[in-house]
Recover the amino acids of this structure.
């Protein structure tokens, strides 16, 4: 097994590296990386439904989409991500638990009491410290997970507070669990020392070989994937099921109710109801939303939402 430790904190680069190792290599890897603050949604989720759009925008928390399914997760410099990428035999029984057992065995050596649940989460004192997901491509499997070591749990909680009740769709919702950091149950643990100890454990006791795949040609493919796929709104927001977003806002004491139909991340249709003639101009201008990307960062800078209007921020915040 090759051990690869990323020198990048850019989530788009690291997600692109996972895909590169999965689809362009035939050897086996454990890829470790730490991302800057971001939320990574599952492949079949609606990003806006899972996140607090305004909070992530205001706090420069990036949004990304991964190859595997499952729920949305928060990453930052206190979270270690591990990805097992390997080939499997035809008809081989693929077990996430068997693939990732080296991580659990190492963590048990730290003296921390941990349990792996039936959902392949690693828990400490009943709270989750590690979630997981899997993706299969031909005879290759990607089994990856998060490991909360000293993450900002306040940011995690605020970033993942979406408004799912406003969405009508067929997406895969996240299952929220109570989480904790490893440092909360074992205060002797630190990210740097843990990463060094993990590296030593994998090499000395499991025969892993530290390697680098960052040749010029490999970097070219990874960079192209990061720029033209993982950082694109078409992938982050557009790769999701069709959905309807329903909400209402009150302007000058009068209520405006509207339903937005979105497909591939683009607002396709709007149905607006308002009995107030004073708001008729605003209602008409709301039709300018049609054709826009339904995501906070794009809409906050778009002239189509009448951002010269005093109600602009109220309307924008209501759309998520």
């Amino acid at each position: 097994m090759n051990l690869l430790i990323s020198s990048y904190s850019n989530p788009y680069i690291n997600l692109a590296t996972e895909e590169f190792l999965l689809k362009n290599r035939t050897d086996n890897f454990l890829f470790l990386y730490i991302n800057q603050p971001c939320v990574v949604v599952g492949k079949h989720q609606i990003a806006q439904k899972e996140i607090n759009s305004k909070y992530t925008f205001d706090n420069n928390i990036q949004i990304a989409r991964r190859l595997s399914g499952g729920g949305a997760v928060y990453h930052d410099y206190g979270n270690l991500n591990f990805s097992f990428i390997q080939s499997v035999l035809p008809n081989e029984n693929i077990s996430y638990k068997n693939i990732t057992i080296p991580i659990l065995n190492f963590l048990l050596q730290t003296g921390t009491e941990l349990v792996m649940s039936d959902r392949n989460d690693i828990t400490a004192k009943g709270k989750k410290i590690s979630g997981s997901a899997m993706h299969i491509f031909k005879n290759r499997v990607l089994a990856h997970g998060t490991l909360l070591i000293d993450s900002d749990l306040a940011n995690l909680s605020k970033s993942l507070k979406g408004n799912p009740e406003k969405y009508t769709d067929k997406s895969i919702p996240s299952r929220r669990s109570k989480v904790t950091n490893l440092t909360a149950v074992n205060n002797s643990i630190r990210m740097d020392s843990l990463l060094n100890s993990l590296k030593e454990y994998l090499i000395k006791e499991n025969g892993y070989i530290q390697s680098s795949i960052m040749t010029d040609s490999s970097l070219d493919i990874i960079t192209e994937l990061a720029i033209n796929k993982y950082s694109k709104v078409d992938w982050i927001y557009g790769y999701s099921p069709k959905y309807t977003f329903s909400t209402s806002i009150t302007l000058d004491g009068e209520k405006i109710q509207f339903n937005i139909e979105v497909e591939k991340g683009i607002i396709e249709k709007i149905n607006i109801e308002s009995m107030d003639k004073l708001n008729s101009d605003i209602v008409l201008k709301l039709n300018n939303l049609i054709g826009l990307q339904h995501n906070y960062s794009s809409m906050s800078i778009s002239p189509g939402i009448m951002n010269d209007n005093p109600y602009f921020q109220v309307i924008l915040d209501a759309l998520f």
